[in-house]
Amino acid sequence: MQFRKSRIKLIVLLTIITTTAFKAQSQTNSEILLHTKFDSIVGKENLGLNNGPLALNPYRTIGDNNMFFKNNKYTVGNLVYDGQPYFNVKLKYDIFKDQLILNPPEQPEHIGINLIQDKTDSFFIYGKNFIKITKSQTTLPDFTSGFYEIIKIGKNFNLFIKHHKDILKGINEEGVYYSFNDNYQYYIEYKGKFYETNNKTSIVKIFPESKKNINAFYQRNRSLSKTDYNQFINSLMISIYDSSINNSK
Questions:
Q1: What angle, 0 to 180 degrees and rounded to 10, lies between the N-to-C axes of helices 211-220 and 229-248?
Q2: Which of 7, 22, 130, 242 could hold 80 in an S-S bridge, CB 3.0 to 4.6 Å?
Q3: For residue 246, what pLDDT is reported?
């Protein structure tokens, strides 16, 4: 009974001071400590987070090649799952299957749980924010529901990166193996509308008033566009936003 009363009190308090929207970078230390205290009282093994099918990896790879974001090791991160924020949990993101995997507390790292995508609102790992976006939230006919890295450029202006890996099958003297290659799609949310953008022409079409600035940026940053296009497109969006702010003054 005491356990239930403590749990109810904490739930009420958490509801008052938090929202379900995930803002990992803006969470205060007191909020994180409060959630951690809640987890310890409830018991981590009883949390709704620890509920899903076991994660299996049927693909044999060579060396460091893998189907995960960054690497195939668990890292400490945060997430919002079924409306509840969780802090300092061990996660890894399978970007081939678009699947977030949890290593349950007190379990060895070869044990993982596939978190249900429909219940996973957002997560934060390796300094990157990811949110779930459904096709119904956009008017784009070919948009795929799933997890997207979100980069906030400015007011009513967000860049989204869809991380994906293409799979290739090979055979060597040891048998069948698989390799995974990074692939990306880019979207812009500008003034409440989604746009797909994968080249300069599509960007100019979205921001015709910034055509001169866009052309100049491409000329100055040709090498970056070839070595790190994610950083290139991020910097370009910031340049467009800054230019629009300056022109409006």
A1: 140
A2: 22
A3: 59
* Distance of alpha carbon 51 from alpha carbon 74, whole angstroms: 18
Q: Residue 24 is encoded by which pair of tokens?
A: 């990992």
Rounded to an integer, what distance in angstroms lies between the CA atom of residue 78 and that of residue 45? 17
SS3 for 20?
A: coil
Cα–Cα distance measured from residue 95 to residue 144, given in angstroms and rounded to the nearest whole number = 13
pTM of the model: 0.81
The two three-digit tokens of residue 33, written as one number: 């400590």
Which residue, chain included where needed, has tokens 């929202």?
19
- Give the residue from 17, 39, 38 showing the smallest Cα distance to 28: 17
The Cα–Cα gap between 221 and 241 comes to 17
The two three-digit tokens of residue 5, written as one number: 């009363």
CA dihedral 229, 230, 232, 236 (to 10 degrees): 130
**pLDDT over threshold 90, residue 123:** yes
How confident is the model at residue 44, as a pLDDT?
53
CA distance 206 to 5: 54
